[in-house]
């Protein structure tokens, strides 16, 4: 039996280390760089540009920067570490976050899920120098979004979400975050929107997933993950998250657009999770299966994804799907991989909707109706 994760299970992002590969797409996030090893940066002074309402870029940044926080990922110690605290924890890395709401019960911060992944404690460093312990309200690894809460007693000015759907290539944007750690907190870099509606493939614990992102040439570095990409009105239009690293290439950064993360944030605020259509199957791509095993299905079988296990009581079980069925189509869409199936489920269907699953079962095709349930309905 081939082991694989459930479609409806919680996914986790893998943080790719900064190494000199010929090309790699990497998270901008958790910084573990020692800032003392850096060359002293040079400074160029230019005349401040003006925004449409007469404010300078510096005015916009001054207001928005108050909402930018440092996020410290503290993890339980495994083995000896010279920086370990007395309670057996160690700072695993730092990222950025953005205050977006302040209510009586607390102040809320959005960041990237990979910034706080694996944390036993989360510490937030505020604009005024105060530090606060943060509670994780919820996170969604698929979209790389997490929401934190700190006590409302801390002085904080939230930032407003803008409408990323109005962005056009060439629009001015600014990235604010904490590159290389808290010593360089609230660093501002300016650039333009290089492109919109880009699809970037990232690696998750259950395979690859495509994120819809804004491309920008504003400098994004380790520690910037979770920070704000703002427009010239000071509105947050993106969450800085990724960059492409390749010899001789600069200015290829990516941010999750507000039109995508705002809905996710609201759902996390309401339920602590994101509820998506759920089948309840474990899957493996055909490339992972020995060829001699696949010969019992068809000599020319090239596309599909094999079911490796089925969650008892799930939608898949109720529909009559079986282990070792090969899913070749959902509705009228051909399926070539587990990623194809996830993408269709999460972007084309809704909870409670009936879909038709076409499978190859030992050389015979069967079309089975399946009513999708919610992921939270199948989680204890």
Describe this structure in words.
- This protein has 380 residues and is mostly beta strands.
- It folds into 3 domains: 23-63 and 160-262, Thrombin, subunit H (Beta Barrel); 65-150, Trypsin-like serine proteases (Thrombin, subunit H), CATH 2.40.10.10; 277-378, Pdz3 Domain, CATH 2.30.42.10.
- Helix content is 12%, strand content 39%.
- The chain contains 6 helices and 21 strands.
- The chain has helices at residues 57-64, 113-116, 258-271, 291-294, 315-319, 338-348, and strands at 23-27, 68-76, 89-103, 106-111, 121-125, 131-140, 145-150, 172-177, 187-204, 207-216, 228-230, 236-246, 253-257, 277-278, 281-285, 305-310, 326-330, 333-334, 354-361, 364-371, 373-374.
- The strands form 4 sheets. The protein has a 6-stranded antiparallel β-barrel. Strands 2-3-4-7-6-5 form a 6-stranded antiparallel barrel.
- The longest helix is centred in the C-terminal third of the chain and has 14 residues, at 258-271.
- It starts with 22 loop residues before the first strand and ends in a 6-residue tail after the last strand.
- The relative contact order is 0.16.
- Mean pLDDT is 82; it is low at 1-23 and 33-47.
- Keywords: Hydrolase, Protease.
- This is Trypsin-like peptidase domain-containing protein.
- InterPro entries: Chloro_Bact_Ser_Proteases, PDZ.
- Residues 268-363 form the PDZ domain.
- Pfam families: PDZ_2 (PF13180), Trypsin_2 (PF13365).
């Amino acid at each position: 039996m081939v082991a694989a994760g459930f479609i409806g299970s919680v996914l986790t992002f893998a943080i790719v280390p900064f190494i000199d590969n010929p090309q790699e797409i990497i998270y901008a996030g958790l910084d573990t760089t020692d800032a003392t090893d850096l060359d002293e940066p040079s400074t160029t002074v230019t005349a401040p540009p003006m925004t449409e309402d007469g404010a300078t870029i510096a005015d916009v940044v001054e207001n928005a920067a108050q909402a930018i926080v440092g996020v410290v990922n503290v993890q339980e110690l495994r083995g000896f570490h010279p920086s370990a605290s007395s309670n057996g924890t160690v700072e695993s890395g730092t990222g950025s976050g953005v205050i977006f709401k302040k209510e009586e019960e607390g102040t809320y911060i959005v960041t990237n899920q990979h910034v706080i992944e694996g944390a036993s404690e989360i510490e937030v460093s505020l604009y005024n120098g105060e530090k606060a312990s943060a509670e994780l309200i919820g996170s969604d690894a698929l979209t790389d979004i997490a929401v934190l809460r700190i006590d409302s007693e801390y002085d904080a000015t939230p930032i407003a979400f803008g409408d990323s759907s109005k962005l056009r290539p060439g629009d001015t944007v600014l990235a604010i975050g904490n590159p290389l750690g808290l010593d360089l907190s609230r660093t501002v870099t300016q650039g333009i929107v290089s492109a919109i509606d880009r699809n970037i493939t990232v690696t998750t614990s259950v395979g690859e997933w495509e994120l819809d992102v804004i491309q920008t040439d504003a400098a994004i570095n380790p520690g910037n993950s979770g920070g704000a990409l703002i427009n010239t009105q000071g509105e947050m239009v993106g969450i800085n998250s990724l960059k492409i690293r390749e010899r001789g290439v600069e200015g290829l950064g990516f941010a999750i657009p507000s039109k995508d993360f705002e809905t996710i944030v609201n759902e996390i605020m309401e339920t602590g999770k994101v509820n998506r259509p759920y089948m309840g199957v474990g899957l493996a791509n055909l490339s992972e299966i020995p060829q001699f095993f696949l010969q019992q299905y068809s000599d020319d079988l090239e596309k599909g994804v094999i079911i490796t296990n089925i969650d008892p009581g799930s939608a898949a079980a109720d529909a009559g799907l079986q282990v070792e069925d090969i899913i070749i189509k959902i509705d009228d869409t051909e399926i070539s991989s587990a990623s194809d199936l996830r993408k269709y489920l999460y972007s084309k269907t809704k909870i409670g909707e009936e879909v038709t699953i076409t499978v190859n079962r030992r050389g015979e095709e069967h079309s089975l109706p399946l009513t999708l349930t919610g992921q939270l309905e199948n989680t204890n």
